[in-house]
Write a structure and sequence with these properties.
Blueprint (H helix, E strand, L loop, with lengths): L1 H25 L6 H9 L4 H7 L12 E2 L9 E2 L14 H11 L13 H28 L5 H7 L1 H4 L1 H13 L8 H8 L19 H5 L7 H11 L13 H6 L1 H15 L2 H14 L5
Antiparallel strand pairs: 1-2
Helix pairs in contact: 1-6, 2-8, 2-14, 4-5, 5-14, 6-14
Length: about 290
């Protein structure tokens, strides 16, 4: 009898997933929804939600993000936290710059593996996404009912994969290179060294780990899960640990920056912007 009920339950879950897949495609949501949105929202704060999306956002906003305190649990927060921007600054850029500089030497805070320029370019890149997604959000909010079937499916982050992608993002930020297959890096993590100072590449994450990711169980501590992440979630991106030559980098800085800009712009697709706008509209808890 128990087996019969289990089979029925699994059938119901599968039917719901199939229905939601069709509903989301019909609603213009892309096949890469979870990947897109996890990237776009992973570092949002309350202030960012107010700045780029709506002034009605508060601390109980229901927008899940990667915990900026990278040595703390949980890895993913249920609500985007307040950031503590200095509101005496008038421009968004100066608020972000000030926050990054204040946290440069704070252990386990935000992108610990990034150099200062990388941290700054990251927050400015994310701001570009939020500006575009915020504009689309305002249009979506006028025509999409938050009680619609589409919003119900978008909010089901366990079924649509967003919850898994946020957990993966958290691991890749906490332990850069952990899914790379580079044994110098992964052996260090397996040996208990948890502070590798490299940064990830801008390339798209490959599709080969999607199935493994959807079947991965993220319940457990970082230390418990590191061996499983290394073994089961290796992607094809890889890492080259070549020593940095500052003089060579300076000589090639313009060409390298042009390449970086090109890669960043590739990530800013209309599909990513729309997927993000719809998720924020459907998920965001508004305060009166």
């Amino acid at each position: 009898m128990r087996i019969f009920f289990l089979v029925c339950l699994l059938g119901i879950v599968a039917a719901k997933k199939d229905k939601c897949y069709k509903t989301m495609r019909k609603g213009g949501i892309s096949d890469l929804f979870a990947k897109h949105v996890s990237h776009a929202i992973h570092s949002l704060t309350v202030e960012d939600l107010k700045m780029y999306f709506t002034k009605k956002a508060g601390e109980n906003n229901k927008i899940p993000v990667v915990n900026p305190m990278l040595r703390d649990q949980p890895r993913v927060l249920d609500n985007a936290p307040p950031s503590g921007y200095d509101e005496e600054f008038e421009t968004d850029g100066m608020k972000h710059f000030d926050l990054i500089m204040k946290g440069v030497n704070m252990e386990g805070w935000r992108l610990t593996a990034f150099e200062v320029l990388e941290r700054l370019s990251h927050v400015y890149h994310m701001s570009e996404i939020w500006v575009a997604a915020g504009k689309k959000y305002k249009k979506v909010a006028k025509r999409l009912d938050r009680n619609s079937d589409l919003c119900e499916c978008v909010r089901d982050t366990e079924s649509n994969g967003l919850a898994k992608y946020l957990e993966l993002t958290a691991f890749q930020i906490r332990y850069p290179g952990i899914t790379s297959g580079n044994k110098n890096i992964t052996d260090a993590y397996l040996g208990g060294f948890l502070d590798y100072h490299i940064s990830y590449g801008l390339q798209e994450r490959p599709k080969n780990l999607v199935k493994a990711l959807m079947n991965f169980d993220f319940s457990g501590t970082d230390e418990e899960l590191i061996p499983k992440v290394v073994d089961e979630l290796m992607d094809e991106a890889g890492f080259d640990e070549e020593p940095h030559d500052p003089w060579e980098e300076a000589a090639e800085s313009k060409a390298h920056w042009d390449w970086c800009v090109g890669e960043l712009k590739k990530l800013m697709t209309p599909e990513l912007i729309y997927d993000t706008a719809v998720f924020v509209h459907c998920q965001l808890n508004l305060e009166n």
